[in-house]
Automatic annotation (TrEMBL), chain B:
The keyword Transferase is assigned to this record: yes
Enzyme Commission numbers on file: 2.1.3.2
GO cellular component terms, A-Z: cytosol
NCBIfam families named among the record's database cross-references: asp_carb_tr, PRK00856.1
PROSITE patterns documented for this protein: CARBAMOYLTRANSFERASE
Protein name: Aspartate carbamoyltransferase
Pfam families, sorted: OTCace, OTCace_N
Assigned protein family: Belongs to the aspartate/ornithine carbamoyltransferase superfamily. ATCase family.
Subunit text: Heterododecamer (2C3:3R2) of six catalytic PyrB chains organized as two trimers (C3), and six regulatory PyrI chains organized as three dimers (R2).
Start and end residues of each Aspartate/ornithine carbamoyltransferase carbamoyl-P binding domain: 4-147
Length: 197, 309
């Protein structure tokens, strides 16, 4: 989980603009409708911090396209992470499971960046403690590669091949001051141990 | 984050707020779930070291540790080597050898938790030391007030009764002051500690006069087991002047909250009708205790200190 407000002091390149993000979210919403035949039994669960506003946006788009109300909520995975003992204690994010629960639902996990896959692993474990979904899918705004676990996304906004030394930052209006996806760095630094974006 | 939780005075405003926020998120994460357990502290050992009788606090700490998947070892002074004369230091070394990641200690001597923290490598949580401090009780009280009243800043809190023998009162005064509440102690002069004027709290002797200006009233038990002197003429007189009966509860503002850290002596410091009324938060206090202790264990044990073990 990243800091509340991202600051990017190093020079960074804009990979997606506000308009691009809008189009990408539109497309994912359409793909969800297509793949789940009108978002039947779908529940969207955003992973804090930035997966939550993304899941809200997807739910809004699906409503405006087809008039379907999709339950959406937040699922914090901090307590399920595998690196808690390696790094300091982290503050927890919000969890709110829609009142209908997730039993028998087609749960779509929503996150901003897919990287090592460890966050998604933690989310799957958290999910199965909450209930028994019919199916679990994954939607991400950016897939930057370098998976450390056998995990793939069902809906990808943009594939961005990166090196470990680069840093992908997703900015969203609800959390940051604007919408953008930025790529920074590239100079050699120690490789990430995963979990981070 | 801090290494041990020994005193409410160790908590600055940011740390205390982080603890309360974490407790809240834990409550949200666990509500309405099939599996009321989180894997966070799997493989860690929490020792409950209790030299004094306690039901509420020990069970609460045990439940908190188990909900985070830690292994819990309960160690009570009765029926252990302590009753054969083993010192706290030797017990501490035993725990050390067992590899306890955290030790929760309740002890009749003030300062026992501080001493223990110097002898063991694990994190020490003070679950009540003599008449000194009980920081997790203060945290759960602050949490309960914040949940029910929506804020702590500027909240007028009256702590009433046996302040002299109360570790709950001391921890609450320190923590509530840090979090911006205004605390007033109400007690007969004989049940106020020496130096109370240096505490960050007001002192009043007339309970009736304080009640209309109070948002939260916290009743303390008269700790007769710690009393070696007579501090008031009779139980009846104490109850008349400092007990929260139905008439007095009527003097409180309509949205005021009634709290008690337990165990209650019904009819002495609090009337049963008041303890069971909707404005009483006494049952919530117990439930919130588990969340606050989970938050404390999580924040202490998932820190850097665990790395490389």
């Amino acid at each position: 989980m990243a800091d509340r407000v991202r600051n990017t002091p190093e020079p960074s390149r804009e990979l997606l603009s506000e308009a691009d993000i809008g189009r990408v979210v539109d497309r994912i919403a359409h793909q969800i409708l297509e793949k789940t035949r009108g978002a039947r039994e779908v529940t969207l669960l955003g992973i804090p911090t930035r997966g939550v506003p993304l899941s809200v946006r997807l739910a809004e788009r699906i409503r405006s396209f087809e008039g379907v109300d999709v339950p959406h909520g937040a699922l914090d995975v901090t307590l399920y992470r595998d690196d808690l003992r390696l790094r300091g204690a982290r503050p927890l994010g919000p969890t709110s499971v829609p009142s209908g629960g997730i039993d028998g639902r087609r749960v779509i996990l929503v996150d901003d960046v897919l990287y090592s896959g460890r966050t998604v692993r933690a989310a799957l474990n958290a999910l199965y403690d909450v209930g028994r979904p019919l199916q679990v899918q994954l939607a991400v705004l950016v897939d930057r590669g370098h998976r450390e676990l056998p995990i793939r996304a069902d809906y990808v906004g943009k594939n961005i091949p990166t090196s470990h030394s680069e840093k992908v930052s997703v900015l969203l209006r609800e959390v940051d001051d604007r919408d953008a996806v930025l790529l920074a760095g590239g100079e050699p630094q120690k490789p990430s141990t995963g979990g981070d974006k | 984050m801090i290494t041990h939780l020994l005193s409410a005075a160790d908590l600055d405003r940011d740390t205390a707020t982080l603890l309360l926020d974490t407790a809240r998120q834990l409550g949200a994460a666990l509500s309405g779930r099939e599996v009321k357990k989180l894997p966070t502290l799997r493989g860690r050992t929490v020792v409950n070291l209790f030299y004094e009788d306690s039901t509420r606090t020990r069970v609460s700490f045990e439940a908190a540790a188990k909900r985070l998947s830690a292994d819990v070892v309960n160690f009570s002074a009765k029926g252990s080597s302590v009753s054969k004369g083993e010192s706290l230091k030797d017990t501490a070394w035993t725990l050390q050898a067992m590899g306890a990641d955290a030790v929760v200690i309740r002890h009749p001597a003030s300062g026992a938790a501080h001493r223990l923290a110097q002898w063991v490598d694990g994190h020490v949580l003070n679950a009540g030391d003599g008449t000194h401090e009980h920081p997790t009780q203060a945290l759960l009280d602050a949490y309960t007030m914040r949940e029910r009243m929506g804020r702590l800043e500027g909240l007028r809190v009256a702590i009433v009764g046996d302040v002299l023998h109360s570790r709950v009162a001391r921890s609450n005064v320190l923590l509530l002051n840090t979090l911006g509440a205004e605390v007033t102690l109400v007690a007969p002069p004989t049940l106020l500690p020496v130096g109370v004027e240096s505490w960050p709290a007001g002192v009043e002797y007339d309970f009736d006069a304080v009640l209309p200006k109070t948002d939260v009233v916290m009743m303390l038990r008269v700790q007769r087991e710690r009393m070696t002197d007579s501090f008031f003429p009779s139980v009846r007189e104490y109850s008349r002047r400092y007990g929260l009966d139905v008439r007095r509860a009527g003097l409180l503002p309509d949205d005021a909250l009634v709290m008690h850290p337990g165990p209650m002596v019904r009819g002495m410091e609090i009337a049963p009708e008041v303890a069971d009324s909707p404005r009483s938060a006494i049952v919530e206090q117990v439930a919130n205790g588990v969340l606050v202790r989970m938050a404390a264990l999580y924040l202490l044990l998932s820190g850097e200190k665990g790395a490389g073990e």
